[in-house]
Amino acid sequence: MSEQAGTAQRDGGTSEQQTGTIVAVSRDDRHRFSKPVVPSIRLVAGYGIEGDSHAGATTQHRYLIRTDPTRPNLTQVHLVRSELFAELAAEGFDVSPGQLGENVTTAGIDLLALPLGTRLYLGSDAAVEVTGMRDPCSMIDKFQSGLKKTLKHTDEAGRILRRAGIMAVVVADGTVAAGDELRVELPAGEPLPLGVV
């Protein structure tokens, strides 16, 4: 399915809803860069993914805990589009689901083009709300040398471009597995671009 498959309108008009697929799900109970692929994950509203080191109402990011442990956790769920892996392969990198630390690997939706506040419905029950983009850190180069520069670079117009996925918070409980459908609900009003969280 093309990343442009389906359209969605923000003005309440009728249109085909954007849909994609969950390719893989991953979690890790320890703070490591990559996360092992698992058969399914359980999302809990306001908390994150059961058994994942980044779950919690307040930040679980090791650096952010040191600076402000009371900060709300806007990075409960990390999503990466699987199409990125083919792009990276063409640039000499070998990356597969879970290896960039994502919890949910998707296909068919251009995640980076989604506006702030987009709701993503995963499987039959779970839902997350998009909070921003992931900013690649130096750990990526420890995983594969040179990968950070590929996932975060400046274009000819001076804009910083990031390709390391998006972050979200859980707004509805549910279990998610590979093969589940992914549906997009765009927020009402003027779309706001994603910042970094």
Q: Name the shape in a single word.
A: globular
Task: Please estimate the helix content.
Answer: 10-25%
Level-1 CATH class name = Mainly Beta
Q: Let me know the average pLDDT.
A: 90
User: In CATH, what is the homologous superfamily?
Assistant: PK beta-barrel domain-like
- In total, the number of domains comes to 1
CATH architecture: Beta Barrel
Q: Could you give the order of strands across the largest sheet?
A: 1-6-5-11-8-7-13
Label the structural class. Answer: alpha+beta
Give me a quick take on this structure.
By secondary structure, the chain is α+β, with helices and mostly antiparallel strands. It has helices at residues 62-67, 83-90, 139-143, 147-151; strands at residues 19-26, 37-38, 40-44, 48-49, 77-81, 104-107, 119-122, 126-133, 152-154, 160-162, 166-172, 174-177, 181-185.
Write the layout of secondary structure elements.
Elements: E1 19-26, E2 37-38, E3 40-44, E4 48-49, H1 62-67, E5 77-81, H2 83-90, E6 104-107, E7 119-122, E8 126-133, H3 139-143, H4 147-151, E9 152-154, E10 160-162, E11 166-172, E12 174-177, E13 181-185
Parallel strand pairs: 5-6
Antiparallel strand pairs: 1-2, 1-6, 1-13, 3-4, 3-12, 5-11, 7-8, 7-13, 8-11, 9-10
Kindly describe this structure.
The chain is 12% helix and 30% strand. The protein has one domain: PK beta-barrel domain-like (M1 Pyruvate Kinase, Domain 3, Beta Barrel). The strands form three sheets. The chain has a seven-stranded mixed β-barrel. Strands 4-3-12 form a three-stranded antiparallel beta sheet, with no helix packed on it. The chain has a two-stranded antiparallel ribbon with strand order 9-10. It is of the alpha+beta class. The protein is globular. The longest helix has 8 residues. The protein contains four helices and 13 strands. GO terms for molecular function: catalytic activity; molybdenum ion binding; pyridoxal phosphate binding. This is MOSC domain-containing protein. It holds the Pfam family MOSC. It comes from Cryobacterium zongtaii.
